[in-house]
Amino acid sequence: MSIELETGEGEDVRPSNIGRVSDDDQIHQEHRYDTENGITAEEHGEQRPVGNNLGTIAQGYYRYTSPEGVPVGVDYTADENGYHPVGSHLPTPPPIPEAILRSIAFIQARQQSSPSSYNRY
């Protein structure tokens, strides 16, 4: 299958689709494309039960070069718990301060050693 997309900047994007295969009532999919401007992407996924519904679980990556000339790559999974991208350019939360970790441990220890009084009237 050949697809041509117009990017709006006079540049054609020509992805190639690997295909879609059905096996034992579960749908497995694979997609990969490479564009003339250096973007590559690949995804593997399948549909499976998630709770009482059918959901798509996928993993893949995409790569491109930023306007500044820096290579950018993202690996990801997407499942019932959301979209989880990983890439060196993505922001990460700061570490939890030691004092906060100690206070969380203290609270958890007290909750386990004494019955809750929150529901008493």
From TrEMBL:
Entry keyword annotation includes Signal: no
GO CC annotation terms, alphabetical: chitin-based extracellular matrix
Pfam families reported in the protein's UniProt record: Chitin_bind_4
PROSITE patterns: CHIT_BIND_RR_1 (PS00233), CHIT_BIND_RR_2 (PS51155)
Compositionally biased intervals (Acidic residues): 1-10
Chain spans, region Disordered: 1-53
Swiss-Prot/TrEMBL keywords: Cuticle
Any one GO molecular function term: structural constituent of chitin-based larval cuticle
Basic and acidic residues composition bias: residue spans: 21-47
PANTHER family in the cross-refs: CUTICLE PROTEIN, CUTICULAR PROTEIN 47EF, ISOFORM C-RELATED
Name of the molecule in the record: Uncharacterized protein
Origin species: Aromia moschata
